[in-house]
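Shipment paperwork, digital attachment
Item: protein structure file
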Amino acid sequence: MSNQILLTISILISNRPDTVRKCLDSIQPLLKKVPSELILVDTGCGEQVRGIIEEYTDKIVDFEWCRDFSKARNAGLERARGRWFMYMDDDEWFEDVTDIIRFFNSGEYRIYGVGLYSVRNYVSLEGTDYTEMLVGRMVRLEPDIRFIYRIHECFSRAPGKAKRLNAFVHHYSYVYQTEEKAREHAMRNVSLLLEELEEHPRNMRVTLQLAQEYNSLHDREKSLELSLHAIGLAESGPVEEDYCLSSIYGNVVNCYMTQYSYDEAIEKGEQYIESSRTDRMVKAVIAGRLAIAFVDKEKYEKALHYTAFYWQVYQEYLKNRDAFMTFDTPVTNTCFHERKRTPVLGNGVRAAVHCGKGDLAWTWFRDMNWQWDIYELDMGVVRDILERMPQAGGQELAYYEKMCSELVKRPELEEFIVETIMENCNPEETIPGEKRESEFTDRIGNAAAYRNVASGHWSLKLIRLTTAAFGPEPGISYTAEEAEDTALELWKIREQTMSWMKAYDIAGAVRHFGGRFAHVMEAVSFPQWEKELTRYFSRHTWRDTAWLAEAFAGEQDQDSMHMLAWRAACGISRASAAAATECEGASADGPEDSSRHPEGGDTEPLDGSVERMMDGLREFALCRTALCERIYREEAIREMPDVLPEEYRGAYAILNLLERTEAAQYAEAVESVREIKDLLPGLANIMRYYLKWLDTRLERQKRESTQAAGEFQVLARQIKARVYALMDAGQYEAALGVTEQLLPLLPGDGELRSLREKIAGRIGNR
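Attachment content:
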């Protein structure tokens, strides 16, 4: 190997004991396999770090820190003997230097002046998320080469064309433990950059770096003001480092977007993207931002146009990355990174979906990274895809189905997808002015768009079953057993699924495949069935389950124990609904409805409500007593009724109540009500209303009795007058006959008895 030194590696050393050894160890293969030297510049590292670095070299330059990185770098450069010079910091280390070794040992270095490698700036300590920036930190040394700028220092010029090397360094120093530490670091940089800008006010590189520091401080106003000022300077005359001017245009658009000033971003962005001052990479940056802004404005054709532009430049970049090296700045270096690319393409997907271009949406969708934390994603992308699916068809729908198959692989996204599908298929929504049949057809048609979404959620299982039965196109084929099993699975969680099973006619779907929906009833033990009915009817009314009664009819023996319990629960629910409806009507504010009180002023409840209530009670009582007679022996029921459970005793009491009511034995019926309230406290509201109605019946009965008695007394006086008239006419036998007929009706009338005796005496004296 030649004794001539090919490469000088110079590193600034500060007080970083945690990383300095990693840094120095990572370059050892270079020092061993390439004629090299290592120069370390001690800027004040302290005894511990000094002891470490002395293990690696004796070429250590002591440098008194003076707030100027270029001076510190030049201190190492001045002592360099290599034909090439590379600089690093002690908080970064190479992953692999194999390609750099090859670059020198192959002689390739002779045709280049700059060697480029990447810096991975991590944004999390876990090392899973980072941005990469291409840096030119290795150059062929020529006499005039030196470092310039107090901070973000660089070589004074590039002494030849650049070579991209397959190498990168890890850099964690931008991951700060606290916001205060981050701000402290940024403020140090700002102070140095302000000094630099004061000396070089037309320097676009310094301006861009200062704008970026303001961005890191979340001071977008200062960053924007600085950038607009720099653009004004450039338009008024020559500027230094004008290759950075293009990125300043891009920063203006970024600032407006970050401030949600989308109108200003669009105005400037559309102007800048057509400007000859912006390079191809910055145009892509601006196009990506415009795509996002136009989606927010719901101008999807525009968003589609700019996403397509961004995508075109990205494809050019992938084919020839070296052609874009000169465009690489802090504004552009993340332009096509997944963190930036995914949101741009996500908005492009949204625009393509709204424009019905499923193929384009699928192309961009496939390039997005859906594995990031959910908060990095725009859920609008998922929502727009799902909302479009019912309107799509054929190949377009197939693209969206493939997208959903990818999305549901993430549990968080699967949950969001299912929730969105449920919103889109909400069974509570109706189509105004349409008949139920049309509404059902539309609902099934919409739901059919989601049946291929690969989720095991119950809503998708229901959709797949019902759309297979009723959908416009054949779906999955079910056996009768499979259809019944799906229905049973949904039935077990009916608190969530009941309204859906009703809206999508799951009973009809099961029958369509030759199954029996009543299977869900039979699969539940009778004691559990009774508990579930109690729980269900405590939350829902019989109206909510009318469809179930229809579904069970004809499939299940109406006198089976399960059905008797079902019918009993429905009966009580109907009775409760009748009582509640009447009570709500009676207590409602506003003018009284004369149709409710036809006698005018009479607040007696309508008999129609009582009839409905009695019908419900009768259904309950008959079904409950039938169950009782299935479970207990006849002699036990007859001879020991008191040992029966209260629910059965209450059912017999209800039958007794109904019999007494129908016989107009209202006083006795009141006693039955009191007995029922003790036996079945759950019927308290029904019995309260029933008792109120009985009171009105008793009151009416009393009024009618009093009225009848008064009318009879008037008639009796008229008959007595007739008797006297007959006596005066000497017609004693006729008078006696009338009194004999009247006495049984008025047994306590003394006048009538006296009159009879008087008439009888006169007849006897003849």
